[in-house]
Design a protein that fits this description.
Two copies of one chain form a homodimer. By secondary structure, the first copy, chain A, is an alpha/beta fold. Chain A has 15 helices and 18 strands. Chain A has helices at about 45-50, 60-65, 70-75, 75-80, 95, 125-135, 160-180, 200-210, 225-235, 255-265, 275-280, 310-315, 325-330, 335-360, 365-380; strands at about 5-10, 15-20, 25, 30, 55, 85-90, 105, 110-115, 120-125, 140, 150, 155, 185-190, 215-220, 245-250, 270, 280-285, 290. Chain A has an eight-stranded parallel β-sheet with strand order 4-16-15-14-13-10-6-5. In chain A, strands 1-2-3 form a three-stranded antiparallel β-sheet. In chain A, strand 14, helix 9 (about 225-235) and strand 15 (about 245-250) form a beta-alpha-beta unit. At the A-B interface, helix 1, helix 3, helix 4, helix 13 and helix 14 of A face helix 1, helix 3, helix 4, helix 13 and helix 14 of B.
């Protein structure tokens, strides 16, 4: 079940509305990452309050813990984590590759030992569809091979990237069959691969579009390649996908990457950066980034960003905003409240950035927004 | 500035109202502990929402980090931590004793090396008053020596307990003088010592009452003594203090200890137990305690306590309650959301228990409440 409607465009930038089983989301949008059934350090209620519309879960992690029996008892991931809006899950493929020597890839799928209890496991396109059906995720990602940029210093050749991309296409077909057999009511997205080679990206697109899937992702970027390579592939790919279907750029990126992605026609993004960086004291603001561990903030009475309306920067009716000095202190003392507040701030910043882009596209001033965004970010906090 | 009004009594149990500089609090009350300017894992806003009326800060820790220059820049602890209601601070004494070999006690005060940067420091009754004046805490505790129950296997003798208690009395006088000299607008509480000896407790009370301080605490309990000794001192001491002044039992304790304390006439409590135990997966409920790490909860769809209205057990308008299975999973994965939710639950339980006692005293059914409380707690979750 999926309906995608384009409300406005400006150049290649698109403002859309995507209807999923658990609700409607406004695109372009950023999806906070909740690997183990929780966006690290952020409650479902805080996500609601900051305007998150869809969050991500990691199939591989949830398969390991809590396991499918528990998730089945809850009727899926939504009730387990107490989140009623849409959820996208990845296929588990990326995490399995990351096991390195611990796994063996074949045409059939990937054999590996569970990092939790050592059990011998076999992840295939069919198993990935079965798990994601138990999770009842609104957007199910195909099982694919995420083509690496390089492997132990060896840069992936065109022939290797082609073989990998073609394997992903065969797996896409198997996913589609299994997804249909399971009578999954949600939406299956295909993933464009092809490494850093435009011709391979085009071939991947052609084959995936022929499968007429309800949405498409761009995978195999933000995998260690130089920034220019990423920008080249992001400039090449999205607008070649069908205009009437949503486009998801996987695992990207910085605020600047999001603005460029939208300019090139991307609708959905996810990244651990806002939450991971928050835990390391790296805060994003309209006027540039701020490292809260810097001693200059020890005595700084101002909030992270005076123009921000997040729960940390704005406080509540009965409580004051958190100052930079307070956050610096909490971080220095290893207090949990530091990552709690900074994660809320960074996610709010990302979600608000997407909201501003949506409004700019509708108003026909996205190009002006881009220029203003770059100037503001360069100003400094 | 302090006004204390008794609204109702039943036996020795008291329902009162205490007016402090930053607001009015209802007694008997429990004060969540916020050592470093944060109740661990709980935002000011959550504290507000769960009905916390006063929180505690630790003078010693805040003196070390962020330091007095930062706290002075904020005009005290309230604005620094974004909490507008009353705050009580301890004197710093207890933490200095805990440094063990690192400190040297004399009539004048305590010399020690900063555990943060090794600086040689000297904490005296006067310095404690000066720091607490910078903090602008609503209730300032006198600098005292917390008489130990035993030291390296040697149980404190009556002569030792007397000497320690008398030192605390001399320090109380010095605190009173310095507090007046500083023109501190808040309330200074004296601390009854005397170890496990009733006669020494009586002598301490007599001398402190002669100083006509606005409130009194009972110190030197919950310091490693057998439960019967603690109960004996808690049964002996509170009602011997002036009826028209608030009584604070320091560092106590379990839910059962709170109910017994109120029955014996205590008005204020603090303890790290609800938050520390929450971080270790030990949850308090109306029907007994629950260890969320127990494998029996792996597949348990129920909230911690169905009768509880905390944010974890009741969810919010847009999000579902957290199940035991979900909390078990989060704890097992080391996810921050586990201590966030369990800390909210345990503190809410403590605050709600105090509210129920206040209502019972006003209604003249505190004895019935005590019996019901014991029966409920024995029922099992």
């Amino acid at each position: 079940m999926l309906h995608f409607e384009l409300l406005a465009t400006e150049g290649r930038a698109r403002r859309g509305r995507l209807t999923l089983h658990h609700g409607v989301i406004d695109t372009p949008i950023f999806m906070p990452v909740g690997t183990y059934g929780t966006v690290k350090g952020v409650s479902s209620r805080s996500l609601e309050e900051m305007g998150a519309q869809i969050i991500l879960g990691n199939t591989f992690h949830l398969w390991m813990r809590p396991g499918l029996d528990v998730l089945r008892a809850f009727g899926g991931l939504h009730r387990f984590e107490g989140w009623r809006r849409p959820i996208l899950t990845d296929s588990g493929g990326f995490q399995v590759w990351s096991l390195g020597e611990m796994r063996k890839i074949s045409e059939e799928g990937v054999r590996f030992a569970s990092p939790v209890n050592g059990d011998k496991l076999f992840l295939t396109p069919e198993v990935s569809m079965q798990i994601q059906t138990v999770l009842d995720s609104d957007i199910v990602m195909q099982f694919d091979e995420c083509t690496p940029y390089e492997t132990r210093g060896h840069r992936t050749t065109e022939a290797e990237a082609r073989a990998s991309m073609e394997l992903s296409l065969r797996w896409a077909e198997r996913c589609r069959s299994e997804f249909a057999r399971l009578e999954n009511r949600n939406a299956l997205f295909g993933i464009v691969q092809g490494g850093m080679y435009e011709s391979l990206r085009d071939a991947s697109i052609d084959a995936l579009v022929a499968m007429d899937l309800p949405g498409y992702a761009i995978g195999g970027v933000s995998v260690g390649e130089p920034k220019e390579d990423m920008q080249r592939i992001v400039a090449h790919t999205p607008h070649r996908l069908p205009a009437n279907k949503p486009r998801y750029l996987m695992g990207v990126g910085t605020p600047e990457d999001l603005v460029e992605g939208v300019a090139h026609g991307v609708d959905l993004f996810d990244c651990v950066m806002p939450t991971r960086n928050a835990r390391n004291g790296h805060l994003f603001t309209r006027y540039g980034d701020l490292r809260i561990r810097n001693a200059r903030y020890r005595n700084d009475l101002r909030p992270i960003d005076e123009s921000c309306s997040c729960a940390a920067c704005a406080g509540s009716a009965a409580t004051d905003p958190a100052s930079r000095a307070y956050l610096h202190h909490l971080d220095r003392c290893g207090e949990m409240l530091a990552p709690m507040l900074t994660s809320i701030h960074n996610l709010h910043y990302y979600l608000n950035l997407m909201r501003e882009m949506r409004e700019a596209i509708v108003a026909g001033r996205f190009e002006a927004f881009r220029a203003r965004f770059a100037a503001d970010r360069a100003r400094g906090v």
